[in-house]
Amino acid sequence: MLPQQKVQYHLLLCASPSKPLCHQGPLGAQCWEQLKKSLKAAGLEQPERPEGVVLRTKADCLRLCSNGPVLLVWPSGHYYGGLTPKRIERIVAQHLINGEPITEWLIKQNSF
Q1: Domains in the chain, number
Q2: Bridge partners, 78 (sequence order)
Q3: Which of 44, 56, 25, 45 has its CA nearest to residue 98?
Q4: pLDDT average, residue stretch 60-67
């Protein structure tokens, strides 16, 4: 049995919707590639991080059908909309690393 690892965040990105309503074209895939690159560069995917690992999942749909691509940061419940690769970079730096959500890009917040 593998030891249980601590998870700081789990990110869900609607990057490849099968029935796109919130965005179309290559933008979701570009955001996904930037998310992978930014997390790796920041060392956030390392399981031995004291704060915990940051997991990522490419989702088909997060059921917010406007202003996509959409990123959900779990467990804080922050939903970011209107994503671009540049916004992904800033979310990783400001929210995930420094703990400061970017309020002007939030389209919803739930408490989990």
Answers
A1: 1
A2: 73, 109
A3: 44
A4: 78
